[in-house]
Amino acid sequence: MKNRATLTPLGLDGREFADPAHATCFVFKCFDSAQRFCNEKVKELHHVRCEIYDAHGLACPPLAVVLHPDFQQDKQEGSLWRRRRKLIMAGLVLLSAALFSSAAIWPNSRDLTIFLA
């Protein structure tokens, strides 16, 4: 369990650990029981964020991130911005390719177009 805003580890009561070295994780037999536990905790403590990992732990991204329903929209908007950034990046790559090709066509303005690319 973590604080939704700061991502600092939390105990079962939802309070931060006095010493971060005392932070713990909970191990469940199956994904369903872990998800039920997380759903109960985020309903009880609105500031909590639960992440469910597989046997590899922090070496891989979480299988699921559970937030209070009031904050689910914030998480989904993050994926929208991720898509927008990818589209902007693709547009900039295409623009730079066009500028490089125009440098080959118009040698007089080659320095400027390569600089812009």
Short account of what is shown:
The protein is mainly alpha-helical and 117 residues long. 47% of the residues lie in helices and 9% in strands.
Notes on the protein architecture:
Helices cover 47% and strands 9% of the residues. It has three helices and three strands, in the order βαββαα. The chain has a three-stranded antiparallel sheet with strand order 1-2-3, with helices on one face. The chain is mainly alpha-helical. The chain folds into two domains: 1-67, no CATH class; 72-117. The longest helix has 34 residues, at 72-105. The radius of gyration is 23 Å and the shape is elongated. The model has no long low-confidence stretch (mean pLDDT 83).
